[in-house]
Amino acid sequence: MLWNNLQQTVELGWDFYLPVLLFVGLIAMAVPVWASIGSAAILMLIMSGDLPLSLVGESLFSGIDAFALTAVPLFILTGDVLVRTGLSRKFLNVAEALTCWAKGGFGSATVLVCGMFAAISGSDAAGAAAVGRMTIDRLVESGYPRPYACALVAAGACTGILIPPSIAYIIIGLVLGISASTLFLAALIPGLAILISILVTNIVMNRIYAYEGGGLMSFGEWFANLRRALASGWYAFIVPGIIFYGIFSGRLTPTEAGATAVVVTIIMGFILGTLKLADFPAMLVSSAKVNGIILPIIAFSAPLAEALAIMGVPQGFVTAVTSLTDDPYVLILLMIGILIAAGCVMETTPNIVILAPILKPLADNIGMNEIQFCIMMITALGVGFITPPLGLNLFVVSGITGESILKIAARAVPFVFFMLMVVLLIAYVPAISTTLLPDIYK
């Protein structure tokens, strides 16, 4: 019914169907996403004749000619430096000291350190790899089954794009013309809500299956452990402190905060003696590989977005959907369903650049705050990091441990359920996303 309405509204022809089939076919053959998007966009432009091909090159460069995008490689590099300097282990020590008083403490510490890493790198995969290498073996030693330990790390690492600063919010801000700093501020409560949902899920699972042993610790012992951990690792929190204070105080843009974080982390590595000049080539290459995946997708999505806009697909989608129902609650559920399904089969960046311009008019039509829409979209897509068949975090922890992806995915089901509950809260309770914002954005 929806597809029929869309066809009638936009009058879709082979200039739409053939590029879509090409895109799906290339993705199925494991062709890189940027090449698949670019090929589909060029074919669509050739068949429709809506935009001269001579302008495609200009469109590619204008798509990434944005100062805000400079923050992406800077935050990625900060995460790499953080791991190589050993500062990430200081986060783990403090997180463990915070949670060691209760049964299931190391599982909770693992989730917390995922959140701490997310507050610096803004990347899910980087967090899953870094935290997984530090914690999975210790989780197994503590009594957790290996598939569950992998699922716990994969779920915790989902906060990489949900807790600011986040690369995903920089990208959606660029696509929709919204300040990244504003989105960071709005994402703080939702990101923490996701983190808490993962913590609570692990505590509940621990209660049911008694994975992790250990008894309650006295306040004196807990305080002594925490004091020792902070005394030996307090300086690691200088980096996230700079990022958060700089961005949320308005003194630094996200790009400036990322640059400052890189410099400070490098200086700390030299002072501690854990970083050498010989480490730089490997760090830069590692960061460049990640950045080389993200930016071409953004660049090649620009001509595709222009072609879809000229063909009237976003407006036609709104008309087609609202012809079925005008109930905002149902329409929100439909958007969440689309985002969850898209997150299961494609990475966050192409989903943002393709779906955001199509779904935002629908959100505007039902009166949803644009900031709330962005938070809902990124959070829903974030769930896709632990859902098959793509589930990037599942592949990362599977690659580290050799554990079956299907076994990890099965153990991740409770985390997915509680994360979806938070997505629904974000979608239906605007205050979760707008409470911290100035009145002009509410």
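That was protein one. Protein two is written in the same sequence-then-structure order:
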Amino acid sequence: MRLIPLLTAIVVAASLYMLVIERDALMAFALGENPETPIASTEDVVADPVESSTEVAENRIGVVVLRSESRALDSAVILRGQTQAARQVEVRAETSATVISEPLRKGAQVKTGDLLCQLAPGTRQAAMLEAQARLSEARSRVPEAEARLEEARARLKEAQINNNASRKLSEGGYVSDTRLAATQAAERAAIAGIASAETGLQTTSAGIESAVAAVAAAQTEIDRLNITAPFDGLLESDTAELGSLMQPGSLCATVIQLDTIKVVGFVPETEVNRIQVGALARAELAAGQLVQGEVTFLSRSADPSTRTFEVQVTVSNANLSIRDGQTADIAISAPGDRAHKLPQSSLTLNNEGQLGVRVVNHNQVVVFYPVKLLRDEADGVWISGLPEVADVIVVGQDFVVDGVPVTPTYREASQ
């Protein structure tokens, strides 16, 4: 019984020896050839060109290629920002008094000139009447001062006549020197009287101006009793409560204007030259709402801490659906460029860590192109840096390098 396994082992060993060690002799025996015939050297054998090309083709790596053509791209500047009310004012009191009006609640719409807070008049009306009385008194003194001035002018004229007559008579020896000196003194006194009368008239005019200023000040104090809305908008806070004491600077209410509204962002200095005032812009709010407007302001001065420039987009908000302070993604239109839209998976890195894609050239050899990412969308990425038409490897690009021959299989862009 032990003889059969031993024979089997000998047969298997002999078969393995013939298949491995004497393989050439065994194949020659099977083909009926002489195993002693020497094998021709490579110098004596001419290679078949068809077999050589087939062997080269078999050594190429198969890849999937997408033929891409460049297209015009509206290269927008993407920013992160927030909405901001067009105007916001804290309306404050300018005088001291007690509030006598019922408060308006926050959220109420107000128009320009609507009453927000009314203050108690106190003694301001009495002060106004007193100022008006002083003004009337000052004005009543004007005719008296003017009459005094006319009287002084008349006396001067009379004195001048008497002096001229005395001088002529004195030349003929008919009037004494004493008489001549008296007429001259009277003329000088008349001149002084005119100066005094003019001063009195000016004092009266100054009194009128002072009284007018007092009336204006009293009227201003009365006007400050009614605190009104400076523009159309919404109340962001309740107005001052009935009976509360207001001091100069006390808050009456906060009014904001939301129509129109601004979307404010900050653009880096590398992108600021691509934005122009008047450019169209689009913003997507955090809630998903899309709004459109145009750039109305671009700062000329950079923020010293961030080195960014403020940009404002004005957006219509007639229904007041946009609130102040909402986060927004802003896209501002900029001059377009030619770019390729490719699957995001086609991007790869070379040995130097550069971002790019691998392309098959006309010789079906791999070439690496560094690219610049322009925009990332849900269905692909927009890149620049490729020729107008390029056969981009979209499957297998990570298994080949520059100069490797490949066998491309083309794929439709919709696949």
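Residues 89-122+229-252 form a domain with the OB fold (Dihydrolipoamide Acetyltransferase, E2P) fold (CATH 2.40.50). Keep this in mind for the problem set.
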